[in-house]
Amino acid sequence: MSATQKTSTLSSNPWNVPNALSTVRLILAIIVCGCIEWAAWLPALILFVIAASTDWIDGWWARKYQQVTKLGRILDPFVDKVIICGAMIALVGVSGSAIAPWMATLVVARELLVTSLRGMVEGQGGDFSAKQLGKWKMVLQCAAIVAVLLQLVLAEGSPSWLGPTTQLLVWGMLLLTVASAVEYVLLVIRGSKGGK
């Protein structure tokens, strides 16, 4: 793709549907954290599902209608991190939650690392698009948070399979969190050595 073609795919107007959706998701993420703080488990679960499930819509819309903007390229991953990290940090303080402090710390550390690497690579004109492992990591993170919130909603009435499933999702999410961080670090190291 030529420089002219790349420029043509960027919309000059940052106030469009994809960025509006990202902004709404950011507001929902903040409300979710408030709901967890206030022990309003069902509203937290519903709003989290809405915020997380609409993540793909803004990206799809931006690509389909050529509304990709510099603001959107920053805002979308930023909102993703607020949704996940915010919910995890809020759940750490909940008694009976499957999220331990070190787990939330690991997730936040990974996001800070990847954000720093993205800024460095793209600042040098390179491409730091999301990899499949990172996308699956996001899916498992969302699933784990939904499972934890569902446990809190159902409380004593939780089915017997929900506890083990939640633990499986949480540990799977942690493994992918570490694996995707290693993948990005190796990509940057190979790139700095002139590798492909």
What does this structure look like?
The protein is mainly α and 196 residues long. Helices cover 77% and strands 0% of the residues. It contains eight helices and no strands. The protein has helices at 3-8, 17-37, 41-53, 55-64, 70-92, 101-123, 132-154, 162-192. Helix 2 runs antiparallel to helix 4.
Fraction of residues in β-strands: under 5%
Structural class: mainly alpha
From the coordinates shown, what is the CATH architecture? Up-down Bundle
Low-pLDDT regions: 1-8
Helix/strand order, N-terminal first? HHHHHHHH
Under CATH, the topology can be stated as: Four Helix Bundle (Hemerythrin (Met), subunit A)
- If helices are DSSP runs of H or I spanning 4 or more residues, what is the number of helices? 8
The domain tally reads 1
| Helicity range | over 70%
CATH class category: Mainly Alpha
Q: Mean pLDDT, as a whole number?
A: 85
Number of strands: 0
Shape: globular
